[in-house]
Fold these 4 entries.
Entry 1:
Amino acid sequence: MDKLQYLLKHMEDSISPHCIKEYTVDHGAYSDRSAEVNKQDRLGRKVDDDSCTEYLAQWKDHVFTTFVNELDRLGERKREWNVDGRGAGIPGEILGDFLHHMKLCKRKVDAFVGREDLVAEASQRLYEPNQGTHSHSDKKSLRSISFCIIGKSGSGKTSLMSKLSHEAHKREQESGQNRPIVVRFCGTNSESATGAKLMQSICKQLHFCLGITTNIPKSFDELVQYFHSLLRDHAILLFIDSLDQLR
């Protein structure tokens, strides 16, 4: 593949098909007349080429039209995102908070290597019998806090937690249980900066995953009680990183 073919393929792979327009230009005619054009230019005479002028006019019109249409399309997509996350059924601002933490988690998981024994042992601990004080005969799959990861800064706590959430997701899919898995990295955005914001964010995601329509309390004390009730009444897997970063 020569350079021109490579550039063409790269353009076709990178740009939406509706933004690409083909033009046929008689390159040979321009090449044959190049010496004559240069000579006329040196003599100070203007060279007028109707075919070139027409081609440039068409190209400018296409670029302008495409640019305006793309701006309109982006505006419409932004409106759809704000209203319901472009079909997700939840405002884009709230969905963006969920996706923010999912992206951070994926980035950590993609960079994770080794420590297979540690990951296997910790993953197994997530699914040990309930160690909480509550007894619910109809919710035998309910789990309490399984463990905490403690270590020096930079020792890999965040990466390990991310990896464990990924392993839990795979196990949930394989078992067919598909319980909500919620991951939060405290202090990485405005919705995870304080204890109240963090609980509200988690409650919103649980509402979205479980189809709950109850209003989330605004006062802190009521929010704490409601947050605990969701964790008590619904089996979920909750991973929270850097609690010390909360304000």
Entry 2:
Amino acid sequence: MIKFDSQRLIFGLFVLLFIVVTELLTARLKLPAWPAYVAWVLFFIEQMNPRKAPHILVGAAAGIGLVLLAPPAIGLLAPMLGLEWGRLVYILLAVYAIVAFGEMVPLILNNYAFLYFTVAGIALQTPDANPSVWVFMALLGGGLLIAATMLTGKIMGALIPAEQRPA
């Protein structure tokens, strides 16, 4: 038999509330919500571990930052290699940097940076693509969603009777 967890059901309602607020604000301000949502989903994937939040947000900025660096870098490579090869070499160098140097600077070059580099690279093909706004939305919007989730979790945790709290 399925046992419903009332705490989880209430927490789910707060998640829905955060989605509604995010959608209304981003629509009104004409801002893309996806960078914030990706950060938030990554936080959930990491089991809402607060220690992972800085890695997610800084990685987001690094990944999108690599997309922002692409035009000048490709511009430097294109005269030597041609545009297509210049683009490919830049992508390979960016991915190599993330993978090879991630152990040395895990706050910046991490799997989150890789994900955002990939998704932002694809999103460049959308109308009105603006990676600078995406960085802002990942940091501010994602940061707010993560903070709201952590705060809700703390409040919800405080509402659990002491005898029912996990040890």
Entry 3:
Amino acid sequence: MKRFLSKKVLIMAVLCSLTLTTVTCGYILYPECRDRHQTRGEFDVPVLVMDCLWLLVGVVPGVVALVVDFTTGCVYESGQAVKGKAGANLDLRLRGVAPAEADMEVTLRAPGGYATTLLLERFSKGEQKMGTMAVKLPAQLAPGYYDLAVSVNGVENATWPLEISE
């Protein structure tokens, strides 16, 4: 009887800790992060600390919290989302001299994986680029969260969250 009771208590404790883990992870605390699927960047320290504290309670709750936040991207800081409207222009500020011949591409990525190239610009070695470049957002964009990525010679250098409002 005692053995059965101790198993029951253990199972209840594991279920309670798993429930609490999902409530305190970044996935629940920051619902706007869910569709971003950010895979790199600076860590959001409070989320990472909370996830790691669950390792003190038990390995399973800690690992569950870390896995959920890393796979959804909620453990990464997003910075401030760029806000825009469908059909509007976004201004990119460039400065400096191109160290080598390069192709710069600005891409808009939707949460479902669909990507659209908004700008493709070629720079010659030593070309001075100062000022702003206008990037026009597609008029048919639905309100929601997107990613705006800048790649140079096919290598992604920067990504910003983009919020499209009505």
Entry 4:
Amino acid sequence: MIKSADFRLPGGRSGVILIHGLTGTPTEMRFVAKGLNRNGFTVHGMQLAGHCGDEADLLKTGWRDWYQSVCDAADRLRGEVDHMFVAGLSMGALLALKLAADRPDQVDGLGLYGTSFVYDGWTIPWLGRLSFLLPLVCGLGFGWKQRFHECFPYGIKDERIRQRIAGSMLGGDSAAAGLHGNPWPSLAEFYRLSFLVRRQLHRIRTPCLVVHAVDDDVASLRNVRMIVRGVRGPVETVLLENSYHMVTVDQERSTVIERSTRFFNHVANTQFVRMPEPAQVAVTDNAGTLETGI
């Protein structure tokens, strides 16, 4: 059964939506959420459809359902703030990119943490590096009961944090730490999303903050280069030297908070607040001609 794990931290007139990764949970965004909230932001740690339950719950959903969760969260927050930023971890970064491509007028800036277009980090086995073929494999009806299991160091360099999260994950607490394995059909959906977002990158002119670990065990720096070369807006890149994939919970999470705060504030301070469209008012000139205007 799916547990509700999303959260909201009220703050100022700049808001941030935080999106967790595939098989993940809003909990992996809570460190960053609290830091951004302390720095004045309204924060919504959202929950993707099918997540924080069991594997069967996840398999009932696909990338369109996950993306709809993001759209719904954006619709709720956009009307409450003057500036809306969207940040995501791993697959969550892909969903943030897609929202910026589809709704450029809604998204003022992006935080892209450990962005994963492909799983090609140093812990990924050779079979896992072929997972980009899963849309074809699963489309032919194969692999529906197969899964790739998370392996040490679970994307976390900090031993204390790793032990706590891995303990919850291996103990079956999916609301706290996510699922232990990635079902092949869900990975196939991930790659369908990845292929689509890569084709949309040229449409993105939204300012991007890219935060990635140099020694990312899940997604190599190749993923950063895809963003830098693909988008058409300004990009600020922060490479972390003492973290693995889960940069929002790992040893340099304070740096993620600091640089995100600085970046989002800079964008907010250099943009005009969006005002509602003015209503048209009927006026009559001296000749009796009816015109419309403000």
